[in-house]
Design brief:
The chain is an alpha/beta fold. 38% of the residues lie in helices and 18% in strands. It is built from 39 helices and 38 strands.
Length: 1125
């Protein structure tokens, strides 16, 4: 049936901030949906609180609302926009839960909004554990063998304990309506059960959990299916977990298609999957169904179903070339599968199931180094922050490519060193517990002599996968022992996925030497095409992967190409914001007449969508792999250059190696990158420009580190050179702390020096994004951090325009930024971080690349900085971009007119996933994502950002508990007094309460945890928080090092989901937010409306300027650095 004509406008709900369990795969699916729906002539209304995604750029929807995804805010948007339908199946669990709440509240009925993609009944049947279990039982009763694991549904702790008597230990605890396994776990005894089930009941919006018999060690599989209104069903992809049951599928290494099923088992699984999607009633979209099979007897159980596009859908899309989200959007508006053409073949319809003639492997990326106190054991609660995918002609090739794609030197298999030095017993003990890096340990212990049977007995990893690792070890052994690296041996190693670096390590030589031998023998990969049909039909879309095979499928071209290096797997410090800039560069340069070639290995992103760029190479971002892509493309046609400045630190680290190999780098040169990143060279740039920076030194030894710190004076900020996301960075307050840091976190050597900086207490930190073309500077945005310096810029809330900086401050920032841009030699984007201490503007660091804040600045100022940066990289000037309308004709982000909206960016932190981790923020970045609040005043914008970042948002009444360090007691008095005036009851620890009383504020004293409960059972601070008696917590830590006072308070706050403010600056902003909420009337406006208003204000500003000066002049247009605006 054709598209429905009764639908004129559709609201799409996004997934909100990037969190563990719900990452940018939903940005990818939502972006696809918006593009499809607009192409179908529908008005698209989007709501998503995440500024970092390309989905929330105004060009992808007709009305884009960067607002909190809560029923209250979404209802305001529905009331204003009056959409005909709501599509909530492409925004993960966040969108689905919001839609269900809107239905329950009667909002959808009140405004006559139809839920499309999956109806309420289907969502209920798929998500409600009890109803889904009944559906599986009905399928079994109809004659098709299907069963669920034995289980008990519980709604209270007493029911959980009773359920354990029925099922026995161990058992799986799974909450309903959650994502990424939040609140789930494996209970081995009643103590475990009470801990996990308590968290699960709290995590589930319906306070429902499922206790399930243990199927630990079983084999785990997933099927991705789609169904239309005519009951056509297709199985898009089967996925198998290499790790057995007990590890969340998001944390497991997975492979597509499933490799260890017999055909009979696969057909049975397929039949059950099709029966489930029909019985649940998903009739216009996709779903994901998870299965487990007992390897001993073949018994199959259905684990769960997601009646929506899931995390695995992005992987299945990239693995097959079948655009699941795009097809789901078309099905939602009335099309059937047989009516939708396949983009890649342009001959087959979407009702043709994809066929694969290659193997796909996904490897998760973790961030335990950011949370040293966290338990690194992998369980049913997801802990990974990203993933990489690789494609090969066989499993060994795909696996080894995937392991090097996650950019951790400990991940790829290794044959370096002596086999006899491996401690077999220690490794056999270690691999018994799932953890990051376990597969490398499996490879090592098998190389040292452990058998397939022995390792299978310990790990439950299927013997077929272990046999493949044994095969890789056989090749590794040849590399170690053969006297000569012959053509045959090199080709054999390459066909099993060995990198030049691995071969070099095995043979105790250098990567460059191996590459020279390989080039001399003319051994290079060819590039195959992902075509959805195993080459049965010709592919029209150049989506490539490398293999050491015979025939290359790269087509010749005549248009000059620009290679864009992506950012690889998401991780803390390098996330979706960098993919955003890469996508904009690709789309912009295609419009400018270039062919764009994307190189990336992240299956979750828009950059790896097959129609974002002219060509896509799904390859690891290593020097070897990028050089081979460049070689293949150079043979295909002319290359205008390679862009390395948009994908974060990953491509930046390749810049010099590429240039040394003769690859043309466009934009900021590798030499300029080095000038900014090398502390000594950058210090000279600042000195030449007469710009102050905090006293600092570079230490190449242990003693030198101590000497520099002593000369500069404590506190000091110490960190390794060349880092992203503040990795390994700490503030230390005395020599003993510094000694501990060096012993624990880093080593100082001439090759890897340690940077030591004077730490500026009580300074305002400022973030600046700018563009420089060699002559003119365009100040993109000036952001003022709400927290003081010392908290990583990625974790600090910030406001744009700055809320306390004056005109003269911004002009000083402009002059300093111009001096740095000229001194470094920037051609494109530049991010500079400053600290304003007293009246001195210190330069903290400069990064000549796209930064995390580029998407936020674009949304806040209505200017697409990433588009402009791509053009500048290819030689365009700022004046030219102003003339074309890419940049404003006059003014920039430093001259935003009075009345411009205030945007607040707030970080979203993963502390709920890592029990026992202190929530105090510092110079090491720990956030996984961000949200944005935008409104006419700071208070309203800040309140929106808090509502978007935290499930409970800011309270407007109740009890506020305050416990602050001595240094903060003076500055906390006025904000706490205002809280009391707003009606909050104030509770405090004894010292804080005493200061408040002296200032006329009544505060109830709570006992500190280490004092214990009172003689009459008076609660401690932690008791009060855990019992739900506290609505807002203000706790600034005192003390230094890892034993910060208040740790238990902040941990209890995370457990209960109570807002916990750890800085006085944050408290002041919170008070303004609460004031705005109390006044009421916070409205919603689309980015398109804000941009229109901003454009009108800029036009008036220009008119006023001309009237005052008689001409258009000033820094914002000339970039001269003078202060005459």
């Amino acid at each position: 049936m054709p598209k429905r004509e009764d639908l004129k406008s559709v609201m799409v709900i996004g997934s909100g901030p990037i969190v563990i369990g719900q990452a940018c795969e939903f940005d990818y699916s939502g972006t696809q949906a918006c593009r499809v729906l607009r192409a179908e002539g529908l008005r698209v209304v989007l709501v998503n609180s995440n500024p970092a995604t390309i989905m929330t750029d105004p060009e992808f929807a007709d009305a884009t609302y960067v607002e909190p995804i809560t029923p209250e805010y979404v209802e305001k948007i529905i009331a204003k926009e009056r959409p005909d339908a709501l599509l909530a199946t492409l925004g993960g669990q966040t969108a689905l839960n919001a839609a269900m709440a809107l239905h329950a509240n009667g909002v959808l009925e009140r405004y006559n909004v139809e839920l499309i993609g999956a109806n309420v009944e289907a969502i209920e049947r798929g998500e409600n554990r009890e109803k889904f279990k009944q559906i599986v039982a009905q399928i079994n009763a109809s004659g098709l063998s299907a069963e669920s694991a034995r289980s008990v549904i519980c709604h209270s702790m007493d029911e959980c304990v009773a359920g354990a008597d029925v099922l026995g230990y161990p058992m799986v605890v799974r909450p309903s309506f959650t994502m990424g396994g939040a609140g789930s776990g494996m209970a081995y005894n009643e103590q475990d059960l009470r801990r996990i089930a308590g968290a699960g009941l709290a995590a589930s919006p319906t306070s429902e959990i499922l206790l399930e018999e243990s199927i630990l060690g079983w084999k785990e599989y997933e099927l991705e299916l789609m169904r239309d209104v005519k009951d056509n069903v297709v199985v898009i992809c089967s996925i198998e977990n290499v790790d057995p049951m007990g590890v969340h599928t998001g944390d497991s290494i997975t492979v597509a298609p499933a490799l260890t099923l017999t055909d009979r088992e696969y057909q049975h699984m397929r039949d059950v999957g099709i029966a489930i999607i029909r019985a649940v009633g998903v009739d216009t979209g996709g779903c994901n169904i998870q299965f487990a099979i007992n390897p001993d007897d073949g018994r199959m159980v259905v684990i769960e179903m997601n009646p929506r596009v899931s995390r695995s859908s992005a992987l299945a899309s990239k693995a097959t070339g079948f655009p699941i989200a795009k097809i789901a959007a078309k099905l939602a508006v009335g099309y059937t599968l047989d009516e939708i053409p396949n983009d890649i073949t342009r001959e087959t319809p979407a009702s043709f199931e994809p066929a694969l003639d290659y193997i796909v492997v996904k490897v998760p990326r973790f961030a335990f180094e950011k949370f040293p106190q966290a338990d690194p054991t992998l369980t049913t609660t997801m802990k990974s922050v990203g993933e990489a995918m690789a494609i090969g002609r066989n499993f060994t090739e795909a696996l080894q490519k995937a392991l090097r794609s996650i950019e951790r030197k400990e991940a790829p298999f290794s044959w370096a060193g002596e086999k006899s030095a491996i401690d077999v017993d220690a490794l056999l003990t270690s691999i018994a517990v799932p953890h990051d890096g376990r597969l490398r340990e499996v490879q090592q212990v098998m190389w040292a002599g452990a058998s397939v049977a022995q390792v299978h007995e310990i790990t439950d990893i299927d013997p077929w996968f272990l046999d493949q690792i044994a095969l890789i070890n056989e090749v590794g052994e040849l590399l170690v022992n053969e006297p000569e690296l012959t053509r045959e041996l090199l080709q054999l190693a390459k066909r099993h996925g060995f990198s030049d670096a691995q071969i070099a390590a095995a043979r105790a030589t250098t990567e460059a030497a191996v590459r020279d031998i390989r080039y001399g023998l003319d051994i290079h990969p060819v590039y195959k095409t992902v075509d959805t049909c195993a080459a049965e039909f010709a592919a029209r879309t150049p989506y490539h992967y490398s293999s050491y095979d015979q025939e290359s499928e790269v087509e010749p071209r005549t248009t000059p190409a620009v290679l864009i290096l992506g950012s690889g797997p998401n991780r803390i410090g390098q996330g979706i914001e960098f993919d955003y800039s890469c996508v904009h560069a690709s789309l912009t340069l295609r419009e400018a007449g270039y062919d764009t070639v994307m190189v990336n290995c992240n299956p979750e992103t828009v950059s790896t969508d097959y129609d974002t760029s002219s060509r896509l190479y799904f390859e690891p971002l290593t020097l070897e792999d990028v050089l081979e892509v460049y070689r293949a493309e150079l043979a295909a046609g002319p290359i205008a250059g390679v862009i390395v400045q948009l994908g974060g630190q990953t491509p930046l680290g390749l810049a010099q190696g590429l240039k040394d190999a003769g690859v043309p780098i466009v934009g900021t040169s590798p030499e300029a990158i080095h000038l900014a990143e090398d502390r000594g060279a950058f210090g000279q740039v600042l000195e030449d420009a007469q710009l102050p920076s905090p006293a600092h030194g570079i230490a190449t030894s242990y003693d030198e580190t101590l000497s520099i710190a002593s000369r500069i004076g404590y506190p000091v900020l110490v960190r390794p050179s060349y880092v992203l996301g503040g990795r390994g960075m700490e503030i230390v307050y005395d020599e003993s702390m510094l000694r501990d840091y060096i012993d624990r976190a880093t080593e100082a050597t001439p090759e890897h020096p340690v940077l030591v900086d004077r730490f500026l207490d009580d300074a305002i930190e400022i973030d600046v994004d700018a563009l420089f073309d060699g002559e003119e500077l365009y100040l993109g945005g000036v952001m003022e951090h709400i927290e003081e310096a010392g908290i990583h810029s990625g974790d600090s809330a910030c406001a744009l325009p700055p809320i306390t900086l004056g005109h003269m401050d911004i002009e000083r920032i402009r002059r300093s930024t111009l001096g740095i841009a000229r001194g470094v030699g920037v051609r494109g984007l530049l991010n500079v971080q400053y600290a304003l201490a007293g009246d001195v503007l210190y330069v903290l660091e400069a990064n000549p690349r796209a930064s995390r804040t580029v998407p936020f600045v674009a949304k806040a100022t209505g200017v697409q900085l990433a588009k402009a940066a791509a053009r500048v990289s290819m030689g365009a000037t700022i004046a030219q971009l102003r003339a074309e309308g890419v940049l404003p004709t006059w003014g920039d982000g430093g001259t935003l007119p009075i009345g411009a909206p205030i945007a607040v960016k707030e970080a979203v932190l993963p502390f709920g996933r890592f029990s026992g981790v202190d929530t105090v923020l510092g110079p090491e970045m720990r956030s996984t994502g961000e949200v944005m609040g935008i409104d006419a005043d700071f208070g309203s914008a800040f309140a929106k950002s808090q509502t978007a970042a935290y499930s409970s948002g800011l309270p407007t009444t109740g009890r506020a508990f305050v416990s602050v360090a001595n240094r903060d007691k003076r500055s906390m008095v006025f904000p706490v007094k205002r809280l009391a005036d707003l009606g909050f009851e104030i509770l405090a620890t004894e010292g804080t309460a005493e200061v408040l009383r002296r200032n006329g504020l009544k505060a109830t004293v709570l006992r500190k945890l280490h004092h214990g409960r009172g003689a009459h059972g008076e609660p401690t601070t932690v008791d009060a928080i855990l019992s739900g008696d506290i609505d807002l917590i203000v706790n600034t830590p005192y003390g230094v090092g890892s034993r910060l006072d208040g740790y238990e308070i902040r941990t209890a706050a995370v457990t209960r989901g109570v807002p916990c403010i750890t800085t006085v600056q944050g408290l002041a902003a919170t008070v303004q937010g609460i004031e705005s909420l109390k006044v009421g009337g916070i409205g919603v406006r689309s980015l398109q409306e804000w941009a229109g208003e901003l454009e009108a204000l800029r036009a008036q500003q220009l008119t006023d300027q001309v009237a005052a000066d008689g001409s258009i002049s000033g820094t914002a247009n000339t970039g001269t650095g003078s202060a005459d605006v």
